[in-house]
Design goal:
Elements (H helix, E strand, L loop, with lengths): L4 H22 L32 E3 L12 E8 L8 E7 L2 E2 L5 E2 L3 E10 L2 E11 L1 E12 L2 E12 L3 E9 L4 E9 L20
Antiparallel strand pairs: 1-11, 2-3, 3-6, 4-5, 6-7, 8-9, 9-10, 10-11
């Protein structure tokens, strides 16, 4: 079968032009040659302000000759142990400016002064001294293990209808002071305050 070469060449030319038109139509302006093609979606990390973290050492508390506690105050609780590594016991005691009635219960008002102090060799470290409105103060003493060493730590809890706070105190032997650290403060998480609905922590009586 004879093939008309001229017609075949014309047909191939037409097909080539059509293919070019189709390819051009599929490409949007600015996308030719890959330029302007959508780049992969960029991932951005939102800027998050760091939450209020406890400082390693907010302040230090030195020994004083006098105690802010008065004779009329009530000793709520106390505990004696070696806190400074001198092989002698120091006494941690919690006091409140309130009197007990005939049944031994504290007669508290809407608020009163609270003091947590450490007595050592006739001197006093006043760890906490504050007027607390509609609330209570508690403390505990724990050993925090660092390797083979046990570091005594005093933890104070302040719980009121509008505030919850945890404070930690440890003795720095080189400086002969107690270092204070805020472990948790509700004010750092709610700028407008809180309203306590319920607490299973027993009230100090």
């Amino acid at each position: 079968m004879k093939v008309n070469v001229q017609k075949l060449v014309c047909l191939l030319s037409v097909l080539s032009i059509c293919a070019g038109i189709l390819l051009t139509g599929c490409s949007t302006p600015g996308n030719a040659g890959g330029e302007g093609s959508p780049s992969p979606k960029e991932t951005t990390t939102a800027s998050v302000e760091p939450s209020a973290q406890p400082k390693a050492e907010e302040k230090t508390i030195s020994a004083q000759a006098d105690s802010p506690v008065r004779e009329s105050w009530t000793e709520v609780d106390k505990y004696s142990t070696d806190l400074d590594g001198d092989k002698k016991k120091e006494t941690v005691a919690l006091f409140v400016n309130a009197q007990k009635d005939g049944e031994g219960e504290l007669q508290k008002n809407d608020g009163q002064e609270w003091v947590l102090r450490v007595e050592a060799d006739g001197k006093y470290y006043t760890l906490f001294e504050e007027y607390v409105q509609n609330g209570n103060v508690y403390f505990e003493v724990s050993d925090y293990y660092v390797g083979n060493d046990a570091v005594p730590v005093i933890t104070l809890v302040k719980s009121t209808g509008s505030e919850f706070k945890l404070m930690r105190y440890s003795f720095e032997k080189e400086k002969a002071v107690f270092a204070q650290e805020t472990v948790y403060d509700s004010a750092a998480h709610s700028k407008d305050g809180i309203n306590r609905r319920y607490s299973s922590i027993p009230a100090v009586k």
